[in-house]
């Protein structure tokens, strides 16, 4: 599955279950009308237990320079959850959900369905608010490496 | 949604509905055990009508040099379906499903569920056979451009 390159995102949420965030690349657009995304999250993760209680969440698509932030929210650096949100990169979005200030794109919305599939859940999310950065490259996870992909970097023909 | 960079894949299928293929970037890993992927496909596409009848399919993850192939299977070049499979890049996989010879990875398997969500269906697929290329870069679609991402191209720290 590591050969399936994908954008790196931090999923954030706030609500009755508390404030939480997790790095996830298993995020996929579903429909434009209504705007919907889906996210696959391990049912054993702390984030999953929180999302079972919360309604509101945000998918923050990471620009290329946020590899360190991605590592903090993946748990690789063992940084406690509260400290991750003390890094001065967060705004308070609708319903107090953290929104990354310099996200390549942020999708704020609410969970419409949480579908168990084996060890994971597929979380369906309807989007209420989209913020798009005019510039910036994208952080991509491919072959177990973080890579940066520029906006103006069309594929070379071989 | 164009800001959500993703690997470019060609989904192929064969069976009672016929042989068909479509370019798709809305593909996402779900679980490792059992190995499962999901694919989001527009319900109005020819591919969708065929996948409602077929069981077997393959997700072919494209290496960087296959931008033209991606365009043929997206319909951009108006190449008829039969001609697309005459391009000498296809092997015949299990259950006669076309498998791309030089795919970065190919995931052969079968549909376990086809879940309607608005204008699209989320197709859940259990994987029976995985082939991985030892080398090769990845074709990524980001900000409405095809980009190539090298395997040994770690993110630069800014």
3D structure, described in words:
The structure is a homodimer of 158-residue chains. The two termini of chain A are 26 Å apart. In chain A, 50% of the residues are buried. Chain A contains 3 helices and 12 strands, in the order βββββαβααββββββ. The model of chain A has no long low-confidence stretch (mean pLDDT 94). Chain A is mainly beta and 158 residues long. Chain A has a domain at 32-141: Pnp Oxidase, Chain A (Roll). Chain A is globular, with a radius of gyration of 15 Å. The interface between A and B is large, with 56 and 56 residues.
What is the secondary structure topology, with strand pairs?
The structure is a homodimer of 158-residue chains.
Chain A: E1 6-7, E2 9-14, E3 20-24, E4 27-31, E5 36-42, H1 46-51, E6 56-61, H2 67-74, H3 81-84, E7 90-92, E8 98-100, E9 105-117, E10 120-132, E11 138-142, E12 145-149
Antiparallel strand pairs in A: 1-11, 2-3, 2-6, 4-5, 5-10, 6-9, 7-8, 9-10, 11-12
Key phrases:
homodimer; 158 residues; mainly beta; Pnp Oxidase, Chain A; seven-stranded antiparallel beta sheet; three-stranded antiparallel beta sheet; 3 helices; 12 strands; globular
Short description:
The first copy, chain A, is mainly β and 158 residues long.
Please state how the strands of the largest beta sheet of chain A are arranged side by side. Answer: 3-2-6-9-10-5-4
Largest interface: A-B, 56 and 56 residues
Query: Ranges of chain A with pLDDT <50 over ≥5 residues?
Result: none
- The CATH H-level homologous superfamily of the domain at 32-141 in chain A: Electron Transport, Fmn-binding Protein, Chain A
| Helical content band of chain A | 10-25%
- The class by helix and strand makeup of chain A works out as mainly beta
Coarse shape of chain A? globular
How far apart, in Å, are the first and last alpha carbons of chain A?
26 Å
> What is the string of SSEs of chain A from the N terminus onward?
EEEEEHEHHEEEEEE
* C-alpha Rg of chain A (nearest Å): 15 Å
If classified by CATH, what would the architecture of the domain at 32-141 in chain A be?
Answer: Roll
Kindly estimate the percentage of residues of chain A that lie in beta strands according to DSSP: over 45%
| Quaternary organisation | homodimer
How would you characterize the largest beta sheet of chain A? 7 strands, antiparallel
């Amino acid at each position: 599955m590591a050969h399936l390159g994908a954008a790196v995102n931090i999923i954030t949420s706030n609500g009755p279950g508390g404030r939480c965030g997790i790095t996830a690349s298993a995020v996929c657009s579903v429909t434009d009308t209504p705007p919907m995304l889906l996210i696959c999250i391990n049912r054993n993760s702390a984030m999953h237990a929180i999302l079972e209680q919360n309604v509101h969440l945000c998918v923050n698509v990471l620009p290329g320079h946020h590899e360190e932030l991605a590592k903090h929210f993946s748990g690789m650096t063992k940084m406690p959850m509260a400290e991750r949100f003390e890094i001065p990169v967060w705004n308070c979005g609708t319903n107090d959900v953290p929104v990354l200030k310099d996200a390549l794109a942020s999708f704020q919305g609410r969970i419409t369905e949480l579908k168990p599939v084996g060890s994971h859940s597929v979380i369906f999310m309807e989007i209420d608010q989209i913020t798009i950065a005019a510039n910036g490259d994208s952080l991509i996870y491919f072959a177990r490496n973080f890579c940066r992909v520029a906006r103006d970097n069309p594929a070379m023909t071989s």
